[in-house]
Write a structure and sequence with these properties.
Helices cover 34% and strands 9% of the residues. The protein folds into two domains: 161 residues, Lysozyme; 66 residues, no CATH class. The protein has a three-stranded antiparallel sheet with strand order 5-6-7. It has a two-stranded antiparallel ribbon with strand order 1-2. Strands 3-4 form a two-stranded antiparallel ribbon. Helix 2 packs across helix 3. By secondary structure, the chain is of the alpha+beta class. The protein is globular and about 65 Å long.
């Protein structure tokens, strides 16, 4: 990992090109918290830790490594087979991983921690134990700076990043990161599933109420949740505030007794029409308990026929 000394942070951040605005810590958190929340959901790494490491290792997103290689976590090449970027660190002209975008960097960071045995004890900690995670990362050798854990903890507490570990956008935030989603009342929690924001309906909710609360049209609530205009909302329903995705974060789902395509769609934040297309079934086709449904595009065994069943 990159050597990082907190007290020389300003000195190591390169000057941005003319006209390019430097990111502040607040800018960085607003811009990248969506990725941290998504990775927490999949890999069970506290979002506070991911954000703090990103802030620290990338100089708030302004370092050469972040701006030129999209590497936000100082991960060196190792066994990396992708593109590379060379920069001075503990040694001169060291090899770092280069990514196509920031999302790839966040994903690789999660996989890096998940796959290496030296970090396995961290995943036995509570998701809210950011101090344990910070100290565990230092103990496992993530960084050479002896004050690395303290630097992470300070960032988490200074910017209240621990509030993200609940899986919801902090109530003090009025804008949902990455979605330009404004909550005018801000009296309910916003969660994420498959990187799609949603709320949990209560007994007083209907599509119009939720739409007004988030400065949306009621038609958006119906469309984003694959609902008919005649349908009603029940207490405990998941209500998405942005369009669901074309694929889920898991490959397969086994149908349970009484389960519908709509319920599966809402569970994984994947559009109903894409479930039909991926599995080559029609909306009127009944599904049965025990049936396997694909939630991601599939490669065909016979490549001579077609490489993908679902390729968009």
């Amino acid at each position: 990992m990159k050597r990082f000394q907190l007290f020389i942070l300003i000195a190591i951040i390169p000057l941005c090109s003319i006209g390019q605005k430097k990111l502040s810590p607040e800018d960085y958190i607003e811009k990248y918290s969506e990725f941290a929340l998504q990775e927490m959901q999949i890999y069970k790494i506290p979002a506070s830790i991911t954000l703090a490491q990103g802030l620290l290792e990338s100089g708030f997103g302004n370092s050469n490594l972040a701006t030129k290689a999209n590497n936000h976590f100082g991960i060196k090449c190792g066994s990396w087979k992708g593109e590379t970027y060379f920069a001075d660190d503990d040694l001169k002209n060291e090899c770092f991983r280069k990514y196509k975008n920031a999302a790839e960097s966040f994903k690789d960071h999660s996989q890096f921690l998940s796959l290496y045995k030296r970090y396995e004890d961290l995943f036995r900690l509570e998701i809210t134990d950011y101090k344990g995670w910070a100290r565990g990362l230092k103990k496992a050798g993530y960084a050479t700076d002896p004050k690395y854990a303290e630097a992470l903890i300070k960032l988490i507490e200074d910017y209240k990043l621990y509030e993200y570990d609940s899986g919801a956008i902090p109530k003090t935030k009025t804008k949902y990161t990455g979605y330009n989603l404004i909550c005018h009342l801000c009296n309910r929690k916003i969660y994420t599933n498959n990187a799609v924001p949603f709320v949990i309906a209560d007994s007083t909710d209907n599509p119009l109420i939720i739409a007004k609360e988030f400065d949306m049209g009621a038609w958006q609530i119906f469309r984003y949740n694959d609902m008919q205009k005649s349908e009603k909302i029940s207490t405990g329903d998941t209500i998405y505030l942005k369009p669901k995705k074309r694929k889920a974060s898991v490959e397969l789902h086994t149908v349970k007794t009484g389960e519908t395509i709509h319920a599966i769609s809402q569970k994984y934040a994947i559009k109903e029409k894409h479930i039909f297309r991926i599995n080559e079934i029609k909306p009127e086709t009944p599904i049965k308990a025990g049936q396997k449904l694909y939630l991601q595009k599939r490669k065909m065994q016979n490549k001579k026929v077609k490489q993908y069943v679902y390729g968009f």
